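Quick question, first post here. What does this chain look like in 3D?
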Amino acid sequence: MEANEKRNLVHQNAIHVETIRKEQRYQKIHTEFSLNPHRKLHVLPDKPMSRKPKEVIAKNSDFIDAFHKARQEPTKKYTMPQTESQEIGWVSDPLIPSNRHDRRFNFYRFRTDVTKHKESELRAPH
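> Answer (accepted):
Ran it through. Tokens below.
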């Protein structure tokens, strides 16, 4: 048998079978999914028109109460300002109640002959 002689189909299939067996012997199949701890996970919300029911979250009232208290404004959390920077604007209620009909504090846009003329001049094509 010469070295340059072509191999027949039986020999080629035997080599192919041997190669596949070697690959399967050293192959590791990973069936468990795990996240990379070094990458940040971005959780995306559902689509707006999705009909999938929302997940029911087990309510832990202590955690939820602490979370809502931490999210409140400082004026609702504390009775007095805790720092000097909180003293500025601590009392944020208006000094007088707002009245939309009081012309001293509400300046509405008025249309006069001059403003109508200038507006039509600006809108006209040049």
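The radius of gyration is 38 Å.
The CA atoms of residues 110 and 116 lie 10 Å apart.
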